[in-house]
Amino acid sequence: MTSLANIKGQAVASRLLENSLQQGPPPLLILHGPEGTGRFLAALAYIQHSLCETGTACGVCVPCKKILQNMHPDLILFPAERVSIGNPDHPEPFSIRWLIRKRLVYQPHEARYRFVVFPRADLLLTEAESALLKTLEDAPEHTRFLMLTHRLDQLSPTIRSRAVTVPFYGLSSPAMRSILPDTVSNDDLTILGGSLDQLELLHSDLTNDMATRIEAALRHPVSLLDLESWLISLEKNSPGTGTTYSASLSYPELLDFFGLLLLMKTESHKRFKQIAPLIFEFKGTLHRKVAGIQVFLVARLFHQLHTTLFSR
Ligand SMILES: [Zn+2]
């Protein structure tokens, strides 16, 4: 049995994937991070969980067995190489035209969802990527896409903006533990998810401030309003897109980090089951390149949080 919780050293990814399974798979998931960090196994485990008869990736039911043998008719696993748009008249197998005309036009054969996996999404050729994007915009009802890449920046911003992104990191928790001082708590390690990139951010005044504000906001509606204005004021401090807070953080990235922190802080909340989907929706729409959208999304999230947290 492949458990998502056991994806080695990838606490953030397992939590994101497990939560997303509970909400039902989103139209597009992007698993990104260095080679050899378990992205591919995680993708298969995720699909197995979705299609397993018992929802546990039991490994013994018919759908599980078919997935493990790569014989499930509703799992379309592209080869880990360049993907072209395909010949307009006779598209070759595993081209995008082939996918659209010979597969996506039909309902799934056996399962509730059809999964399409691109193990090297960074090798989608430009034309192929554009054609795929059109397909994503139409959001085929029964199809779910998983893209894997070690270079998130190689995917077009439009593709990224339609995805829920799941980060994988290069370091295991024990490795991190041995590197980091004892002052870094185990909770911090979970948030870092095996990357030292965000350590500076994690131990910054900004994060401490954010964490304190989140804790207060979960207890009192006035503090929730305060947190909302504070988050929005961070955007005004740094107008326009692409401007940075610390070494490498844009406003959408900062909000993404906020979403993650909020997810961690609400995990034991009695209404977590209602809160989590709101955060996922928020995280999933954050990176759209529409002027002013982040402020709108913050406002919407906080309106929803208010109802969820404080209604009777
Ligand atoms: Zn099964």
List keywords for this structure.
single chain; binds zinc ion; five-stranded parallel sheet; alpha/beta; 312 residues
Task: Summarize, please.
With 312 residues, the chain is of the alpha/beta class. The chain is 50% helix and 8% strand.
Would you mind describing this structure in some detail?
The protein has 312 residues and is α/β, with parallel strands linked by helices. The protein has two domains: 4-170, P-loop containing nucleotide triphosphate hydrolases (Rossmann fold), CATH 3.40.50.300; 204-310, no CATH class. Helices cover 50% and strands 8% of the residues. It contains 14 helices and five strands. It has helices at residues 11-23, 39-51, 62-68, 96-104, 126-138, 157-161, 173-179, 186-192, 199-202, 205-219, 221-237, 251-265, 272-285, 293-310; strands at residues 28-32, 75-77, 114-118, 143-149, 164-167. Helix 4 links the parallel strand 2 (75-77) and strand 3 (114-118). It binds zinc ion. Zinc ion binds next to helix 3.
CATH topology of the largest domain: Rossmann fold
Number of individual domains: 2
Low-confidence stretches: 239-247
Mean pLDDT equals: 83
Radius of gyration: 20 Å
**Proportion in helices:** 40-55%
Task: Determine the N-to-C terminus distance.
Answer: 40 Å
What is the succession of H and E elements?
HEHHEHEHEHEHHHHHHHH
How many β strands by DSSP? Answer: 5
Classify the secondary structure makeup into a structural class: alpha/beta
| Range of strand content | 5-15%
Number of helices: 14
The distinct bound ligands, ions and cofactors come out as: zinc ion
Q: Any guess at the CATH architecture of the largest domain?
A: 3-Layer(aba) Sandwich
Shape: globular
Strand arrangement across the biggest beta sheet = 2-3-4-1-5
